[in-house]
């Protein structure tokens, strides 16, 4: 089943020709919503209500209040006989407080966030285990992306470790150039991740539409990706699946409250790993972007992500990848056969020599020869980034040189519905297994809801 670990680049060609409009998708989703609501109704016994804190809080100040009055004006208190009333009140409140405490104890291990707390608006992407939705958190109107992953598909693809790992790594990271996590939860059929919503779509969609990017656009994108990677590496995590599908465009702007699209963030930590010295067996990834040392089952380190970054630069400059082929073996043979380099004659008009040099150094087959092998400073110090305004980029004060159309859907609805159909077939074949406790228990501990509202607000200001 090894091949199931590999992710081939989606061939989202001709993505400008959309057959389904957002409203058509909306109609399809209404049906899904109805089905989901029915499912929620059936799940009510298993999905408890959120914790109740209100009564508990009320009881404490009330009793403090009555004792304060008593000490200040004891003689008057005696005449008006408030003591008896407040004692009664005290008993009632004490009783309510006890109930609230008991309820709290009962609910302690139960999820605070669940599916029916969100309005599902429409599908914005699709992955190996299910759809990604634009959702609204009913409680506060906040918009998020929700990655829904079918347990049946996860089991069918032998990927329980990957999804548990994704949730664990995500919860240790928080950065303006990553898609950050807010909540994780599950029901009987699915796992859910609630993430930053990136309304600009992914770079596979945009490169499909544009065919190539300009030098300025490519440098800007690569710089954003670099900042996300530099942070992940500082936390000892390798992404290992950097490719256009996993790079999404963010709305942004701080100057005079202006907002524009075009900052890139890294998403999909499905095969990310914390660095271990002995990792030659970790061979997941996407052939074409996968570093040769991973392909050849050798121990590998942070430089694998810089190789993928180089492939992206090459693709954005020339409209093709350096090593192509239909199978993993084809691509491996090509990598082993020769070191691809951008030749002087291939550099497009208006692109600098420095750009080609930067990309050539990233796509080095031998990790030790690769830019970034000795640390991220090697990328920052390259002449292509001479005088680059890194701190302005970090603060998102630069205007992106690529601004996608804000009025269009930035995703390929046809591609989504095709992949959804394939997923649904597999789900049907494997869903019976979800009845087994031994299967469900493999997902235990997936929930994460310990982010306070304050943290959420901070996140959204990135
Ligand atoms: N936070 C997000 N905002 C907007 N779109 C997203 C977001 N996360 C993912 N997507 C879209 O959904 C697709 C699938 O999500 P991804 O996390 O890559 O799933 P998988 O691990 O199955 O590949 C992505 O290629 C992207 O187009
Ligand atoms: Mg992906």
Main attributes?
single chain; 462 residues; alpha+beta; Transferase(Phosphotransferase), domain 1; two-stranded antiparallel sheet; 17 helices; 43% helix; disordered N terminus; binds adenosine-5'-diphosphate; binds magnesium ion
Q: Can you walk me through this structure?
A:
It contains 17 helices and 9 strands. Mean pLDDT is 80; it is low at 1-83. Strand 1 (118-127) and strand 2 (130-137) form a beta hairpin. The protein is globular, with a radius of gyration of 27 Å. Helix content is 43%, strand content 12%. The chain has a 5-stranded antiparallel sheet. A two-stranded antiparallel sheet has the order 6-9. Among the domains are: 115-195 and 424-451, Phosphorylase Kinase, domain 1, CATH 3.30.200.20; 206-408, Transferase(Phosphotransferase) domain 1 (Transferase(Phosphotransferase), domain 1, Orthogonal Bundle), CATH 1.10.510. By secondary structure, the protein is α+β, with helices and mostly antiparallel strands. The chain starts with 21 loop residues before the first helix and ends with a helix. The chain binds adenosine-5'-diphosphate (ADP) and magnesium ion. Magnesium ion binds next to loops.
């Amino acid at each position: 089943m090894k091949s199931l670990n590999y992710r081939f680049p989606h061939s989202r060609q001709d993505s400008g020709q959309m057959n389904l409009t957002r409203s058509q998708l909306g109609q399809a989703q209404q049906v899904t919503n109805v089905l989901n609501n029915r499912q929620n109704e059936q799940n009510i016994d298993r999905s408890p209500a959120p914790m109740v804190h209100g009564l508990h809080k009320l009881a404490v100040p009330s009793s403090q209040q009555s004792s304060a009055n008593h000490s200040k004006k004891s003689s008057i208190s005696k005449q008006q006989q408030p003591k008896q009333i407040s004692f009664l009140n005290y008993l009632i409140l004490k009783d309510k407080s006890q109930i609230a405490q008991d309820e709290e104890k009962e609910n302690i291990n139960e999820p605070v966030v669940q599916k029916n707390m969100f309005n599902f608006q429409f599908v914005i992407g699709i992955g190996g285990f299910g759809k990604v939705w634009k959702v609204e958190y009913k409680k506060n109107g906040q918009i998020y992306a929700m990655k829904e992953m079918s347990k049946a598909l996860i089991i069918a693809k032998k990927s329980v470790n990957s999804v548990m790992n994704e949730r664990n790594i995500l919860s240790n990271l928080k950065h303006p150039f990553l898609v950050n996590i807010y909540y994780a939860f599950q029901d009987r059929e699915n796992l859910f991740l609630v993430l930053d919503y990136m309304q600009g779509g992914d770079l596979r969609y945009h490169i499909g539409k544009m065919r190539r990017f300009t030098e300025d656009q490519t440098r800007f994108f690569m710089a954003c990706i670099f900042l996300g990677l530099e942070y992940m590496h500082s936390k000892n995590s390798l992404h290992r699946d950097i490719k256009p599908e996993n790079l999404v465009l963010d709305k942004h702007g701080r100057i005079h409250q202006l907002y524009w699209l075009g900052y890139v963030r890294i998403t999909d930590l499905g095969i990310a790993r914390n660095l271990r010295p002995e990792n030659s067996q970790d061979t997941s990834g996407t052939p074409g972007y996968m570093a040769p040392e991973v392909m050849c089952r050798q121990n590998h380190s942070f430089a694998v992500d810089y190789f993928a970054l180089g492939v992206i630069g090459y693709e954005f400059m020339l409209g093709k990848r350096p090593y192509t082929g239909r199978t993993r073996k084809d691509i491996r043979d090509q990598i082993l056969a020769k070191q691809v380099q951008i030749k002087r004659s291939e550099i497009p008009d208006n692109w600098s020599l420095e750009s080609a040099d930067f990309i050539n150094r990233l796509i080095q087959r031998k990790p030790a020869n690769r830019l970034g092998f000795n640390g991220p400073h090697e990328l920052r110090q390259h002449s292509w980034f001479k005088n680059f305004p890194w701190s302005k980029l970090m603060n998102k004060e630069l205007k992106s040189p690529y601004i996608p159309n804000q009025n269009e859907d930035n995703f390929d609805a046809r591609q989504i519905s095709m992949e959804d159909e394939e997923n649904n077939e597999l789900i049907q074949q494997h869903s019976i297994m979800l009845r087994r406790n031994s299967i469900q228990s493999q997902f235990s501990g997936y929930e994460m809801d310990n982010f306070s509202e304050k943290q959420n607000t901070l996140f959204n200001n990135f």
